[in-house]
Amino acid sequence: MQSKHIHLIGICGTAMASLAGMLQAQGHRVTGSDAAAYPPMSDQLAAMKIPVHEPYAEANLAQRPDLVVVGNAISRGNVELEYVLDTRIPFCSMAAILHDEFLVGRESLVVAGTHGKTTTTSMLAWIYEVASRTDAALAPSFLIGGVAENFGTSFHVRPTRPFLLEGDEYDTAFFDKGPKFLHYFPDAAILTHVEFDHADIYEDLKAVKTAFKRFVNLIPRRGRIVAFDGAENVTECVAKAFCAVERYGFAPSSHWRVTGMTHDAHGTRWTVLRAGEHFADLTLPMAGEHNALNATAAAALAAGQGVPVAAIVEALASFRSVKRRLEVRAEVGGVTVIDDFAHHPTAIRETLRALRNAYPGRRLWAVLEPRSNTLRRNVFEEALVESLSLADHVVLAGVFKSENIPVHERLAPENVVARLNEGGTPAELCADADAIVASIAPRLAAGDVVAILSNGGFGDIYHKLPAALEQVTA
């Protein structure tokens, strides 16, 4: 593509911010706009010196761009989108330009699934990066929906063939309501989990499974799918694949079988058997059974693509996680503040289980902002209560932008709090981040672990709570 001025509407989304950097690396002049910028993507954009305009306004397009990329969070009525349509500035979706500009002629390796795809893609990218130290052809290009700590970025663009992608099942754009991952045409793929999610665009679990079945149907006969072996939904979605399917999990029949898992303060250790034969003893400096499974999937896909076992073992042992995935944000007065992106009851459950393993015997607080389009709805109320009950104390914020959710569909946090208290888990409801900080900071004690769960900025609680703890312990 000839060098152009490309403007991204909704640039601070994880995928959009990454695309901005990729386009800049290709020599394009990149600008963008968003309603609100927050870390880690705002930091990444600032480091790349990509201008970000706030808020949305026609004036942001005064220097008419050659092309506008419309983020999937942007809908009709957005002032910039309306200006683009009125003035006929050429526009496209993130997924479409990603395919046309970066994926043609490469080996596309896609990680898909309701949970774990950001971490798994980051693991896969780091495996390839370590392997490239002895084989330069394996140096990966990648796009991840988060900042991979080993790289300090969410993307890389290189001239080599492997291109590793997080495959998002969310819709593509206001004019393309199909999943983004249908644009990526994988040569091989990982499928982690398939559950009902994104209740704003999928009517039910059947619709979600249909999307993943279409994804599987894109993989050529010469390709391969590494699929989780512990869920009926995954089994159904890969049942009609035309390519080889290799299952991973704990079952004796799993092609990639996880055995002998142990946890301690330093992380997780386990052995992987490949078709019943010893493959590798793996170590991961992260807590959580789910993270070990993610690592096994990444190892399996990489090994099948020719990556040496030694590189896989070395990479996982030195893996540094992803921003906002069990990320320790502060240690103040013996209180550990954890930031995690969990925004689905299953992810919340696995996050709290992982923290139990990482911090045994310590009091665990779960502080949740119902912010995602799914979690703001009442469809998961029962599952949410079950997941949060793994904590010793739960604090819920009010539903983010509750007015955007129909009353009959809206989550009632007060119901969740009441049911938790009835079940013996102390819980309370606070209006916002400031109210939460004021309520819990004086009550936190040395040894407590606070898991802050949100897929957004959460009123800057990640800074406000440690600051309040500093005052309390001063």
TrEMBL record:
Residues 111-302 form the Mur ligase central domain. GO terms for molecular function: acid-amino acid ligase activity; ATP binding. It comes from the Bacteria. GO terms for biological process: cell division; cell wall organization; peptidoglycan biosynthetic process; regulation of cell shape. SUPFAM superfamilies: MurCD N-terminal domain, MurD-like peptide ligases, catalytic domain, MurD-like peptide ligases, peptide-binding domain. Keywords: ATP-binding, Cell cycle, Cell division, Cell shape, Cell wall biogenesis/degradation, Ligase, Nucleotide-binding, Peptidoglycan synthesis. Residues 324-456 form the Mur ligase C-terminal domain. Residues 5-99 form the Mur ligase N-terminal catalytic domain. This is UDP-N-acetylmuramate--L-alanine ligase.
